[in-house]
Each structure stands twice: as structure tokens, then as C-alpha cells.
């Protein structure tokens, strides 16, 4: 049985812009590549470079039949093996949400949920770092918790209960968020769920919604508050996208809340949920722009 071996650079962050665009195109093509053969992605090494160079020099069609015969006799033969055991299919993956809260002291107070999925995915899961999507969302949620908890000390209780949820399965149609919502008390007054997704880059910030918010809604108030807090050289824009219930996966995590009749939005630097960088191996820690992250979280 044959196999396809694809080598990728050791340092993806060192690629220039043209190479990065080509790599994104390759990832897009491979994600829909249909084959019965095994496909392996490995980091390049000197040994692999030598092997590929030799195969390229001797493996092609020779100019004469005699030379072709000589090449087949004297050329080196390469056998690639793996000592990794076959990975059994995951039948029932265990997923764990991590949840904490800050309470106003009144169970009847409205609740605001801050949500960020913490997993990663990519063409080669073992190489997927996903520092921006969604490591930056996780970091933003932790920063918000650290900042807001100061207002919930004894003798000072704001009017909102706050829930901070790190959800699992975000790259698999937001299964962690779904589990969290389905286990909510129907009478629990969630005024708004704010999902944080990919905040570690970009010059613009987007608030993803399913429909235009009303002027007096909490969604509009939150948007205005964030907009007023940004410096003049940065902007925030509302992007409206209706929920496609016929799609295999939802576009954004907040859509899971909306389907359960809970108001929700997503803050992100991605305007389009189909942006290939959302699940690219190029999304390493060097992909994070700390200045952008600072202002997106602030």
C-alpha cells in the first residue's frame, strides 16, 4: 500500500508572506483531498532533504532505456517506517468544560457569561498550536476574570453575576458550549453570552452577531462600551451573519447560545469565519501580535 509523505518547514514562522499564502492554499487543498492512501506530515530534516534530492535525481524518467535500467539497479531504495502504534478511532471522546463565577450575592441578578473554547485543530493535529485561535481567546478570558474579580470583594457587589467558561470541543462544532447550555436551568437569567475567539492579531475588531441589535439592547450597550474604549487608530465593526442550521458546523460559538434562545455575540479579529488562518498550522505563538492582543482585551 502506498503513502503520501509531505514535509513541512521546521520554523513556519520564518516563511515570507508569499510562502505563507502558498502554505494556506496547500492546507485548503489537502483538507478536501480524497485518497485511500495514508498521508504523513513530518518536519523536514537533513536526512529527508538528502533522500528527496536523491529520489528527484534518479527517480524520474531517464533520457535512454539504458540509463533507466542503470538507475533502477544502482539507485538507493528507501523504506520509511513508523514505530507508532495505530491510533484507534475515538468513539466517545471525553470533554471537560472549566467554569468559575463571580456572584453578586443575589441569585435573581442577571448573568453575563464570558466564553472561550480552549482546544486546537489543524491538518496535522500533532503540530497544531492555535496560539491565536483560540489560545488568545483563553488568555483574554483569564485576563477579564483577573480584572473583574476585584469588583466582587466583600462590601462591593455589582448587579451582575458573571460566569467564565472555558469550553471544550470548539473545533468540533462547539460541543462544550452545547453541553454547558443544555445543562442550564431554564429559569436562569442569562442576559448575554460574550464569546472570545481569536483576539491575538489584526488592526480591527469585529463583533459577530446573527441580526442587527436593537438600539436599547444590551448588545448595543456592550458594543458602544468597547468602541469607546478603543484608541483612535483602532476600530470595531458589527458583522451580521444569519445562522445556517443546515451547515455541518456552526460558524461561531455564540450561535450555539442563540439556538437555545440566549442572547450572545462573538468578539474576534476575523471578519469571516472561513478565514483559513483559523485552523492553520501557521498559527503559532509567533503569530500573536501583543499590541493587538492588548487593545483587543483592554
From TrEMBL:
The domain of life for this entry's organism is: Eukaryota
Q: What name does the UniProt record give this protein?
A: BOS complex subunit NCLN
Amino acid at each position: 500500500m502506498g503513502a503520501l509523505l509531505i514535509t513541512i518547514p521546521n520554523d513556519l514562522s520564518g516563511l515570507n508572506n508569499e510562502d505563507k499564502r502558498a502554505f494556506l492554499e496547500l492546507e485548503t487543498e489537502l483538507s478536501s483531498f480524497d485518497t485511500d492512501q495514508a498521508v504523513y506530515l513530518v518536519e523536514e530534516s537533513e536526512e529527508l532533504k538528502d533522500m528527496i534530492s536523491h529520489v528527484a535525481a534518479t527517480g524520474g524518467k531517464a533520457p535512454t532505456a539504458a540509463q533507466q535500467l542503470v538507475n533502477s539497479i544502482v539507485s538507493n531504495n528507501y523504506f520509511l517506517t513508523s514505530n507508532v502504534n495505530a491510533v484507534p478511532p475515538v468513539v466517545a471522546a471525553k470533554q471537560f468544560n472549566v467554569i468559575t463565577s463571580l456572584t453578586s450575592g443575589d441569585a435573581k441578578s442577571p448573568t453575563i457569561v464570558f466564553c472561550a473554547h480552549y482546544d486546537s485543530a489543524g491538518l496535522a493535529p500533532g503540530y497544531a498550536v492555535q496560539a491565536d485561535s483560540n489560545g488568545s481567546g483563553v488568555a483574554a478570558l483569564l485576563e477579564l476574570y483577573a480584572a473583574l474579580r476585584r469588583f466582587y470583594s466583600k462590601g462591593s457587589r455589582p448587579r451582575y453575576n458573571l460566569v467564565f467558561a472555558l469550553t471544550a470541543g470548539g473545533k468540533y462544532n462547539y460541543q462544550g458550549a452545547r453541553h454547558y447550555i443544555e445543562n442550564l436551568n431554564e429559569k436562569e437569567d442569562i442576559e448575554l453570552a460574550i464569546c472570545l475567539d481569536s483576539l491575538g492579531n489584526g488592526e480591527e475588531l469585529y463583533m459577530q452577531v446573527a441580526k442587527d441589535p436593537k438600539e436599547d439592547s444590551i448588545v448595543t450597550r456592550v458594543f458602544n462600551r468597547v468602541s469607546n474604549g478603543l484608541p483612535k487608530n483602532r476600530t470595531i465593526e458589527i458583522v451580521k451573519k444569519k445562522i445556517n442550521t443546515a451547515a455541518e458546523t456552526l460558524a461561531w460559538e455564540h450561535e450555539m447560545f442563540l439556538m437555545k434562545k440566549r442572547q450572545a455575540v462573538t468578539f474576534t479579529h476575523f471578519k469571516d469565519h472561513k478565514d483559513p488562518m483559523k485552523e492553520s498550522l501557521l498559527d503559532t505563538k509567533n503569530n500573536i501580535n501583543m499590541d493587538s492582543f492588548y487593545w483587543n482585551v483592554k
